[in-house]
Structures are given as structure tokens and as C-alpha cells.
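Researcher: Go.
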Amino acid sequence: MEDCVVRMEGICKYFGEKVALEHASIELHEGEVLGLVGDNGAGKSTLLKILAGVFPKDSGDIFIKGRKVRINSPRQSRSLGIEMVYQDMSLCGSLNAWENIYLGRYHTHPLRRSLLPILDKRSMARKALQSLRNLGIDLTDINGPVRNLSGGQQQAVAICRCQLFRPGVILLDEPTASMGMAEREKVLDMILDLKDQGSSIIMVTHNLQELFQVADRALVVKEGRSIWCGPLEGMEPENLAQMMFVGRA
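Model: Structure:
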């Protein structure tokens, strides 16, 4: 398919004798939000982490825009235009928002008459603040530690960290977990904004109401296998839930 930006075919992953994924497959189309759903332990997060380079696959193939690739590390995944926001957000609580956003990829400018670069803190803080505002988040203190931020604000920082580097593919692992209703809505709005900006998104979620709010299609994973994939338009949440837990509509 011409608009397929990610295709994973026959992916298998084993942790000792435990089967995490068995011949699972997934396709992500350009400019869409694909919901990844299934029971706990179905293999959803493992599938994303293989694409993000956290876990190596044991077998199967990965194609990015039609080209077969090998992904053995997060660095390789990022080089292919893929960024992941983990369920725990992986933020450093003692660092502020812009330090977390640019962590490991700080902007520097050279000192005059010196070969040693220094951090361009003002530029990073300004760009981080603007990027957060673009996602509908206005922090009163961009320099305060992120541990003092609300769950929704921390998720915005994590999303901003990956979005700022303009990835083509964004992976979200339960982005609204442990949030109140108002913050959930803000995060869902952020996801739609990212889609409007041209990103293709895979989102793991257990909340079917949220799934139907933002996703174009859904992929059901059960016991390590992908058992159904299709558009959500015209589908009832009850039918999708039945597929998740029974294996058929």
C-alpha cells in the first residue's frame, strides 16, 4: 500500500518460555491514528517497543515506507523518524520542562574565541515553551522541576520531547493512564493536533471511548497475535470489546 509508513509482518518475541508475540502484524498508514487494543498481557506494548528499538524481535520483518529495515536500538529507531512516549513518560523529575525536552540533544552555541560549546539555554527554553503552547499547555514556570507538574502537563512535556524533533511516526503507550477527565481531554486534543501536523500515530489504550474519539482504525491483539484490524467508523464499541476478550465480534 502506497501510504503505508510502517509495516511489521510475522513478528515473534519470546522471553524465555513466555510467548509475548507470535506472528503479529501491523500496518500504519500515513497521517492516521491507529489504536492498538487488547487485554492485559496481549503483547501491545511489546510490539511498540520492538518498533522503538527497546526489544529486539526474534523473527519477522519490519518495513518503513516500503523499505525493509533492522531496528536494534532506540537510536536506530529515531534515525528512521520514530519516537515513543512510554507509559511512565521517562521524565527526570528533578529537571525542568525544557531540560527534559532536550535531554540528550541539547542545543549549544560556541563561545567566541573558544572551541568549547556552551548550552543555549535561552533558545531551548523559548522553543520548548512555544512547543508546549502549540499543544495547548501554558506552563507558568518553565524552569521548575517537572515532578511538580500535573499528570497532563508531564504527558505534554513527554509528547513535546518527541514532537519537537518532527518524527514521522509517534508511538504512545497508554498516554492518558492515571489522569482526570479534564487532563485526558487535553491529551486527546494533543494527539489530534499531532495528526493534523502530519504525524502518523500508534496509540495503545484500554479506554475504548477515547479510542473512538481519536483513532481512525484499530488493531486487536490477543495472546500475542493480531486478530483483527479495521476502520472504526460505523463500528460499535461493544463489538470491538467482544473481539478483544472473545476473539470474534
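Model: Residues 89 and 158 are 6 Å apart (CA to CA).
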